[in-house]
Amino acid sequence: MHIPEGSAHVDLDSGTASLHVENVCVLDAFKVANSVAGNARAVNQVQGIINSLDIEWSGILSTETANQPANKMRGTFADNTATIAVTATTPRTMVTSLSNGHGFQFVSDPAATSVNHFALIGHEQNGIYF
Amino acid sequence: MTTNRIKKGEEIKTTSPASNLIAAVSRRSFFSRAAVAGGAVLLGSSIPGKVWAQEEGLPGLCDFPVPIPHINAPPPGGAHFYFPGPVSGAAAATDPSGAHPEGRDPSVIFNFKGFVGQADFNLTGTGTDLDTGATAPYLFHTDTRFMSGVFVGTDGVERKASFAFV
User: Fold this and answer.
1) ipTM
2) How many angstroms separate the Cα of A12 from the Cα of each of A62, A64, A79, A94, B65?
3) CB neighbours of A91 closer than 8 A, spacing ≥ 6?
4) What is the pLDDT of residue A68?
5) Contact status, residue B94 vs residue A118, Cβ threshold 8 Å
6) Quick one: closest CA in B to A106, which residue?
């Protein structure tokens, strides 16, 4: 599935960026542990839809430059703050050990109510581009 | 998508890119890539037609992006990403694996050049059972990132693409 070019916009000088996606199919493993460990993925993972997702980055709290030989990465970054608003739906599915099979929809409260713990934007190059 | 459906008052677990990478660089390998990159993904991509590996007669999975080499330590362990935190590697409340003297790479894709964005949130909202209509307040925790630029996949071909991890 493709998301149109231009879903992400970045202006490093002003410390702003945005990400907007909609109607994206994803997989929902219900719990992080299931997803990371791959616990019974074939059974416990169902298709979900990100109906809409909007993240806005703004402000510059600090700037960092990186040159990391161990990671083969270098770049320029701005630590800032961000807000998020999202609507996601898991359609009705078969009953599994983790799901009653019911459809589920989550609609977030307005973006301004989200609590941001960490945010950054930047430009980097790693691997063969290092 | 890895979603932590946690009602208010219950324990919150960290959501991270160590979910399921669905790198939508090509439709054919959409789901197969999930296993390799080890993160959750939404993404947008824009690929010049001439570099579609499938159209060059190469195997359909060869345009898979390469995950960064770093493997995080518990909790949870074994996935190719750094928890959110300053690129300096300094200890951060958002990184349960501690400080990283080598630094942090916010990208989860290797052989990549371009813009990145990362944000770690708690967000509240309303969950609705679409069968019964029952609603309840929910609290989610998410680490969401995007990477927009060029990358070289496992076939050595450079592609332009945008990735987002949720």
Assistant:
1) 0.89
2) 12, 12, 10, 45, 25
3) A46, A47, A48, A49, A103, B130
4) 98
5) yes
6) B127
Instruction: Determine contact, residues B67/B110, Cβ cutoff 8 Å.
Output: yes
DSSP string, B21-86: ---TT-STTTTHHHHHH-S--B--B---GGG-GGGGT--TTTTPPPBPS--PPSSS-S-S-PPSS-
Tokens of B106: 């916010």
pTM of the model: 0.78
Q: Residue A45: what pLDDT? A: 62
Write out residues 66-105 of A within 8 Å (CB-CB) of B. Answer: 66, 68, 70-73, 75, 77, 79, 82, 84, 86, 88-89, 91-92, 102-105
Q: In chain B, what are the domain boundaries?
A: 6-165
CA distance B53 to chain A (A): 16
Rounded to whole angstroms, how far apart are CA atoms A3 and B163?
A: 9
Note which residues in 77-136 of chain B have CB less than 8 A from chain A.
Answer: 78-79, 84-88, 92-94, 102-107, 110-132
What is the per-residue pLDDT across B95-115, written as a single tens digit (0 to 9) for each? 998 999 999 999 999 999 999
